[in-house]
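pasting for the record
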Amino acid sequence: MEDINIYGYMRVSSKEQNEDRQKIALTEMGVPENNIYMDTQSGKDFERPQYKRMLKALKSGDTLYILSIDRLGRNYGAIQNQWCILTKKIGIDICVLDMPLLDTRQGKDLMGTFIADLVLQILSFAAQNERENIKKRQADGIAAAKTRGVKFGRPDISAPYDFADIVN
């Protein structure tokens, strides 16, 4: 298999997160640096610029490496849909490195497909469930901070003494 047929996808949710772990895993699989696509945003949907760019580059027979399914996304239905687009519509193979059962290069028979589909459903559920838990913990933390009197947003400033003259 030529290098041009091997791709990698990485995603981090924020600039504070470090993508090194994902990049190391992908390069160890032989993914060329110029075939690694990375987005820095939430996995709630697939409206991500680098993901869309990667989709345009992929062609039938290519292999896509992803470290874990939650790096692909965190929305149950959207992950299922994208998996179908990637494997059925485009015709690529996907290898999820931390879950050997999610390697479409293996087990192309009915049993292998069934097992991969089942594992994908379970992991997609877990990814969305974790996203919902993160959102709930964040909302709980904000509510607790507000109860303690923490103010969010820009600090209040008083208008200059000649504000009315300036505005009129």
